[in-house]
């Protein structure tokens, strides 16, 4: 996840999702992930304190700042790069399982936070962002 000043997702040169500022969350799903994993991840995304307070310390979360959350499905995060010169994606969940869990995660996030946007599973997306900090955190459950 990245703290951003702004982020957007476009498909075929048409913007399909945008946040003014907050968190861009590139989301990889493994075969063993389920709703409890996704819910715990959402709790962490919404509660993780990486926004500055008045003293300039990272003590605030995206909910406290009123920032947006842009969820983007990204199976390439699951790449195994330990061998050879081409990534293997055998550690990514099967497409239908990943789609179902990502869509559930998006719906659940929208119920828990006011400003949620998301990319389109399986689409060729162009993601634009202005990283704030830069702050980039690998968040795992």
Descriptive notes:
InterPro entries: Daa-tRNA_deacyls_DTD, DTD-like_sf. Keywords: Cytoplasm, Hydrolase, RNA-binding, tRNA-binding. It is found in: Cytoplasm. With 141 residues, the chain is α/β, with parallel strands linked by helices. It has a single domain (2-136), classed as D-tyrosyl-tRNA(Tyr) deacylase (D-tyrosyl-trna(Tyr) Deacylase, Chain: A). It contains three helices and eight strands; from the N terminus they run βββαββαβαββ. The strands form two sheets. Strands 1, 2, 3, 6, 7 and 8 form a six-stranded mixed beta sheet that branches. α3 links the parallel β6 (68-73) and β7 (116-118). The chain is globular and about 45 Å long. The mean pLDDT is 97.
What value does the Rg take, in angstroms?
Answer: 15 Å
Terminal residue distance: 13 Å
The number of helices is 3
Shape: globular
- Beta-strand percent range: 25-35%
Helix content: 10-25%
The H/E string reads EEEHEEHEHEE
Mean pLDDT equals 97
Q: Biggest β-sheet, characterized?
A: 6 strands, mixed
Here the CATH topology equals: D-tyrosyl-trna(Tyr) Deacylase, Chain: A
Poorly predicted runs are: none
Query: Structural class of the secondary elements?
Result: alpha/beta
CATH architecture: 3-Layer(bba) Sandwich
Number of domains: 1
CATH superfamily: D-tyrosyl-tRNA(Tyr) deacylase
CATH class: Alpha Beta
Overall strand count: 8
């Amino acid at each position: 996840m990245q703290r951003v000043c702004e982020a957007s997702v476009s498909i075929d040169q048409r913007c399909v999702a945008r946040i003014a500022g907050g968190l861009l969350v590139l989301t990889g799903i493994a075969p063993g992930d389920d709703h409890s994993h996704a819910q715990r991840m959402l709790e962490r995304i919404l509660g993780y304190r990486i926004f500055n307070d008045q003293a300039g310390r990272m003590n605030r979360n995206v909910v406290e700042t009123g920032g947006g959350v842009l969820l983007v499905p990204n199976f390439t995060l699951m790449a195994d790069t330990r061998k050879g010169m081409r990534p293997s994606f055998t550690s990514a969940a099967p497409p239908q399982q990943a789609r179902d869990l990502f869509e559930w995660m998006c719906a659940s996030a929208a119920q828990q936070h006011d400003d949620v946007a998301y990319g389109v599973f399986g689409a060729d997306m162009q993601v634009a962002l202005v990283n704030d900090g830069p702050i980039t955190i690998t968040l795992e459950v």
